[in-house]
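Why predict the complex rather than its parts? Because the way molecules touch one another can change local conformation, and only a joint prediction can capture that. The input here totals 225 residues.
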Amino acid sequence: KAGVTQTPRYLIKTRGQQVTLSCSPISGHRSVSWYQQTPGQGLQFLFEYFSETQRNKGNFPGRFSGRQFSNSRSEMNVSTLELGDSALYLCASSSSRASYGYTFGSGTRLTVV
Amino acid sequence: QQQVKQSPQSLIVQKGGISIINCAYENTAFDYFPWYQQFPGKGPALLIAIRPDVSEKKEGRFTISFNKSAKQFSLHIMDSQPGDSATYFCAARREGNTPLVFGKGTRLSVIA
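Output of the joint prediction:
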């Protein structure tokens, strides 16, 4: 069974640009959550999508947005990038029945210069 | 406000020793407490989890101890091995479709 796939693995962007990250969940999983991981703050929750609807949202500015498609694949977008957005962005999927069990992808390492 | 406080930030243990990582929480509505293990270049992977109706859960060399009255839980790694060297995160979640909240992590180094 394939795991959670995140693309790209690495990304370098310039301040002010925007970026889109992609996540393909485990087949059959309908929930996708996004987390930002930084050395100082650990894992911070961004948002969760379930069946194409945003179910939960963390405390991040509106520059951070996401969406989920009918095949459960999800994307997150960050507009007007700031240096502080440099982080590892992790996607986790879970099934609707076992929603306590998160499976994480390997993440996208975003560097803003 | 940090909902789950984890300590220590880093830990060095001799091979064969016991590694102990502690977490404390405030929200009594939390009903699920997992531990995740993360190796460099990888995402966190679920290691072991516990619900508040039990005080201890063991899986192989890994044990969670849970103290509901103190609102604390801990991870014990028995017979620690160099391959256990990783960052460990505790987490907690309320009942229902709510997100996991994580501690800030403990970097464990097991030296021979």
